[in-house]
Amino acid sequence: MAGRDQLTGQKALSGNRRSHALNATKRRFNLNLQKVTVLTENGGKQTVRVTAKNARTLKKLGLTA
Questions:
Q1: Distance of CA 32 to CAs 22, 23, 45, Å?
Q2: Each residue's pLDDT tens digit, 1-23
Q3: Up-side HSE of residue 25: CA atoms within 13 Å toward CB?
Q4: Which of 7, 18, 36, 64 is deepest in the core (most CB within 10 A)?
Q5: Contact between residue 34 and residue 49 where contact means Cβ atoms under 8 Å apart
């Protein structure tokens, strides 16, 4: 799933796919985006797409619904 993290703005990285013969072809390291419901400042809820790592951080801080 390509795209950007809606909270931190992270995007996919690029690199090389390497064969056994060390041939290099371009590839993308896409983000592991998840839909998470976040509590807003006024007490409402909003669904955002964040990386799995940031979803764990939000859960740890108690900001998810």
A1: 27, 27, 22
A2: 568 999 999 999 999 999 999 99
A3: 3
A4: 36
A5: yes
Tell me the pTM: 0.80
Judged by DSSP in three states, 16 sits in: strand
Give the helix ranges, DSSP H, for 1-65.
52-61
User: Using an 8 Å Cβ cutoff, are 3 and 28 in contact?
Assistant: no
| SS3 category, 38 | strand
Please write the tens of the pLDDT for every residue from 19-43: 999 999 999 999 999 999 999 999 8
Residue ranges of domains in the chain: 13-61
Counting Cα atoms < 13 Å in the Cβ hemisphere of 56 gives 3
Q: For residues 3 and 11, give the distance between their C-alpha atoms in angstroms, rounded to a whole number.
A: 6
